């Protein structure tokens, strides 16, 4: 019997260790603050002693970067990672497509070196980040836009919509397709008396954030409703039983295709890649109805007033979401925005700082020429702005760009 | 003697995984309770009694999801019960030997299908079909509001029912086949027919029936993907089953990725409610079993 009891003791000890490790892992992934600070202080002392030997910066930097977030940017990111890793074989980049909110969240928790999000981190999260990491860079990496898609049997041509009409549909104030407001915009089609099914995202998403933010700045009806804007909002149309929530762009598209008399919003890149037709949307700045296409989105970018953007991207960028929306120019599509990357400015690990600088530089220069179908590159003036700001990335408060270039 | 000892040791060693079940349960429950405390602290029970989901203003109440979870869970069990019972009776007492094994294999295969397949099939094929037939009929019969071409509480319940039927039926058919042969002999010797035999045998397995449906209900209530694809995902409490709705698991799978702050904790509070529903269901079925059937 003695043999069995020692076995039992060993097994119990193993179980306790596994359980303790499990609990520790769970706790640290939730809180995590204390453990990360202690580990960073320990690396400071180590790397400062080795820094003298590596200042000559060999072209082969060995580091690994963990990035993740936005599902929208994922196809572009995979292309960038592939191109970048073949240029710098010593640097390993992993990107997980977990959603914008998770990108920001995991960056804040310390799980990601680079957080990707379709909208700049909201002010409260930005403050938490600066408290934890010091300065934060929020840089645009690719252009985003949204299509309003619809399913009206028998309808041909292009549906015209204004921000107010779209807002009122999602607020449940316009419930039927033959509403006078819709008929006035599309006098050539005899709309049936059918309820409008308003399809929105069921998962928290940057797409919803951009869509609701655009409604917020463009429609008085939306502002006064108090719904506001965010990754997920409290859709008033749902309470009437006229809403539907689809998961991801593909979920929204499936619901719109399946349900006659429905309307929805999807990422432009997804719409272009899948040949979806978007409604022509009124640009309130010009009074024109503009059909979404690569050309009209491009027009909005070219004519945006970039002096509105701050020269330093280390500020809270959530105030600058509207720079590319409702651009005042002929044929400028109104719902245009950026997708963003969030990174720390100062690092305690020299090779990591250099690797992140090189990767981000690659994204805004070479990466912009290697975009998959449906993506639009950053305008050259924005590229310049980002490149200037990347020079802030530093190791122990010394900028790293001089060491690698 | 020595060999015996060694074998005994190995035997005891093999029992270790069973203790891991307890450990897993305790750890999981611990995490769920620990993470839901901030939400319960802040909102109290209104997390369960209010219907609002507003991350913009940080207001949360999952009543619509709780309503949808219970409705789809109960409805799918009710819809599935006659089919599962019929299948169990058929393969045991009615069908020829060859068809029997074919049916059993087929239904076991169905039980092993990934749920996302059921979800897409429900969304793309079954939904539009039912919408034009059954839902249109129900809608005009009762004068119900019906706008979607499928996605609704009823569609989700039907898809769930189809998913849990093979599972419930496999449990039922095993128990049904355990009813002693002497019952068959007695019934036939009295000159009674198949119908009387089946009714009598079913009365023997009433308890097993409850047990099987406690498990099947648990499956239905915990399902995420298939429900998320067919229910419409809107926070709407409507007695009209043709309206879209939400369930707790589909809400969690939809929003967990972007939840931060208190929303994260609210998710766990709702998961805790799911655990409570599960435990309550087990207790209720035990209580029913105590009453002599």
Question: How would you describe the overall organization of this protein?
Answer:
Chain A has helices at 2-30, 33-54, 74-87, 100-109, 123-133, 163-171, 180-185, 206-218, 220-225, 236-239, 248-258, 268-273, 294-303, 350-364, 380-390, 401-404; strands spanning 63-69, 91-97, 114-117, 136-151, 160-161, 197-201, 243-246, 262-267, 280-283, 288-290, 336-344, 346-347, 394-395, 398-399. Chain A has 405 residues and is of the alpha/beta class. In chain A, strands 2-1-3-11-4-8-6-7 form an 8-stranded mixed sheet. In chain A, strands 5-9-10 form a 3-stranded mixed sheet. In chain A, a hairpin with a 2-residue loop joins β13 and β14. Chain A is globular. The model of chain A is unreliable at 30-58 (pLDDT under 50). The model of chain B has no long low-confidence stretch (mean pLDDT 87). By secondary structure, chain B is mainly alpha-helical. Chain B is 78% helix and 3% strand. Chain B has 12 helices and 2 strands. A two-stranded antiparallel sheet of chain B has the order 1-2. Chain B has a domain at 70-255: MetI-like (MetI-like fold, Orthogonal Bundle), CATH 1.10.3720. Chain B has helices at residues 2-43, 46-49, 63-94, 97-111, 115-142, 153-178, 181-189, 194-204, 206-222, 225-231, 248-255, 262-290, and strands at 51-54, 59-62. At the A-B interface, α1, α4, β7 and α11 of A face α1, β1, α5 and α11 of B.
């Amino acid at each position: 019997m003695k043999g069995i009891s020692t076995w039992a003791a060993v097994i119990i000890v193993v179980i306790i260790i596994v359980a303790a490790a499990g609990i520790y892992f769970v706790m640290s992934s939730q809180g995590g603050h204390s453990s990360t600070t202690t580990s960073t202080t320990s690396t400071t002392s180590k790397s400062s002693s080795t820094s003298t030997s590596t200042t000559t910066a060999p072209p082969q930097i060995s580091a690994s970067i963990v990035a993740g977030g936005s599902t929208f940017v994922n196809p572009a990111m995979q292309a960038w990672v592939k191109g970048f890793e073949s240029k710098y074989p010593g640097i390993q980049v992993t990107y997980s497509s977990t959603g914008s909110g998770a990108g920001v969240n995991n960056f804040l928790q310390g799980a990601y070196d680079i957080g990707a999000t379709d909208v700049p981190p909201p002010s409260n999260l930005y403050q938490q980040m600066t408290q934890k990491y010091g300065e934060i860079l929020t840089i645009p990496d690719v252009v985003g836009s949204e299509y309003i898609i619809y399913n009206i049997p028998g309808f041909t041509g292009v549906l015209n919509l204004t921000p107010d009409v779209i807002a009122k549909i999602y607020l449940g104030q316009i419930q039927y397709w033959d509403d006078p407001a819709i008929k006035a915009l599309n006098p050539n089609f005899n709309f049936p008396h059918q309820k409008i099914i308003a399809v929105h995202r069921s998962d928290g998403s940057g797409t919803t954030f951009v869509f609701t933010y655009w409604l917020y700045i463009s429609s008085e009806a939306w502002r006064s409703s108090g719904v506001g804007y965010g990754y997920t909002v409290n859709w008033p149309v749902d309470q009437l039983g006229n809403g539907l929530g689809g998961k991801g762009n593909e979920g929204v598209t499936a619901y719109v295709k399946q349900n006659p008399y429905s309307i929805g919003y999807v990422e432009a890149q997804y719409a272009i890649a899948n040949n979806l037709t978007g409604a022509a949307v009124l640009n309130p700045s010009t009074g024109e109805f503009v059909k979404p296409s690569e050309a009209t989105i491009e027009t909005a970018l070219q004519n945006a007033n970039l002096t509105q953007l701050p020269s330093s991207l280390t500020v809270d960028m959530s105030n600058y979401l509207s720079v590319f929306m409702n651009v005042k120019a002929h044929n400028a599509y109104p719902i245009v925005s950026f997708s963003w990357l969030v990174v720390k400015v100062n690092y305690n690990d020299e090779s990591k700082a250099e690797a992140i600088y090189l990767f981000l530089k690659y994204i805004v220069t070479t990466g912009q020429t290697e975009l998959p179908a449906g993506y639009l590159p950053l305008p050259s003036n924005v590229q310049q702005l980002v490149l200037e700001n990347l020079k802030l990335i530093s190791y122990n408060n010394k900028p790293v760009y001089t060491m690698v270039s | 003697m020595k060999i015996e000892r060694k074998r005994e040791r190995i035997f005891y060693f093999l029992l270790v995984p069973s203790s891991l079940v307890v450990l897993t349960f305790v750890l999981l429950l611990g995490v769920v309770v620990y993470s839901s405390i901030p939400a319960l602290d802040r909102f109290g029970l209104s997390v369960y009694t209010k219907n609002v989901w507003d991350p913009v203003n940080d207001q949360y109440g999952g009543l619509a999801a709780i309503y949808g979870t219970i409705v789809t869970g109960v409805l799918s069990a009710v819809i599935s019960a006659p089919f599962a019972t019929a299948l169990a009776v058929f393969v045991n007492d009615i069908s020829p030997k060859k068809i029997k094994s074919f049916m059993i294999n087929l239904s076991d295969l169905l039980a092993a299908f990934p749920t996302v397949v059921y979800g897409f099939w429900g969304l793309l094929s079954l939904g539009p079909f039912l919408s034009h037939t059954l839902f249109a009929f129900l809608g005009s019969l009762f004068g119900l509001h019906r706008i979607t071409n499928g996605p609704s509480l009823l569609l989700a319940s039907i898809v769930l029912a189809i998913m849990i039927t093979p599972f419930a039926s496999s449990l039922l058919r095993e128990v049904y086949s355990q009813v002693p042969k002497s019952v068959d002999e007695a019934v036939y010797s009295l000159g009674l027919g198949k119908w009387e035999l089946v009714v009598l045998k079913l009365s023997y397995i009433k308890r097993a029936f409850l047990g099987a449906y406690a498990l099947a209900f648990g499956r239905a209530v915990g399902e995420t993907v298939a429900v998320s694809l067919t229910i419409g995902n809107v926070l709407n409490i409507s007695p009209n089953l043709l309206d879209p709705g939400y369930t707790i698991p589909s809400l969690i799978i939809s929003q967990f990725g972007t939840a931060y702050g208190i929303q994260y904790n609210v998710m766990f509070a709702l998961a805790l409610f799911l655990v409570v529903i599960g435990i309550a269901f087990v207790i209720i079925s035990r209580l029913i079993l105590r009453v002599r059937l």
